[in-house]
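Ticket closed. Logging final result for DUF3450 domain-containing protein.
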Amino acid sequence: MSKRTLIASAVIGAFVLGSSAVSADPLENLHKEEAKIHASAAKSQEKINSLYEQSQELLAQYRQVVDETENLKVYNDYVATLVADQQEGIDSLQRQIDSIEDTKRGIVPLMFRMIDSLEQFIELDIPINYEERKARVERLRDIMGNSNVTVSERFRQVIEAYQIENEYGANIRAYQGSLNYNGTDITVDFFNLGRTLLLALSLDQKNAWRWDNESRSWEKLGDEYVESVVKAVRIARKTLPADLIKLPIKAAE
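Final structure:
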């Protein structure tokens, strides 16, 4: 080859190499840009995914808050109803408290009248446990004058005394005491059949008496009743089983 040919070949080769180098740079840059775009898109997708997850969490929280708000509203309405009911109770109690003094002013005279009536009843009734019942009335009068005893406690004891009096009419009892007959005090065993009958038996079981409420005195029974009175006392003390016995009971008028 001539020198000119060699130079031309060299120029053409250089041109080709130069063209290849020039055309390779934009392609590489294109790939790099594409890679950047993909990377940017991936980051954007990650942000989108993160935002979506956050939005879902916020939505769930929002729904929970809405549910709690509804529940609180229902509960608040319920509590408001309770408060209103309690307020009515408080108002009622306050009205009762305001009327306590009026109640006291009314109940104290009532208790005095009840004690007087009880004392009169005991005097007119057959003398079952007479001394004990009179002492109970005296205790009630002492309590009424004791400032350390509350009105409610005074009233309770008055009612209790009435209950005890009521029980005398339904019980069969035997107890020891003394009676005065013809000016002589005699120790005896008393027997009462409710308020229907009050008998007395001497401790030697030889004499018996019956209380006559009309004459307000004791009358001696005939010998035919003594054995029955002895049995009655034993039955009342549960030392003898219950049985039919003959007793001097006045017929109802």
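The two ends are 177 Å apart (CA to CA). No further action required.
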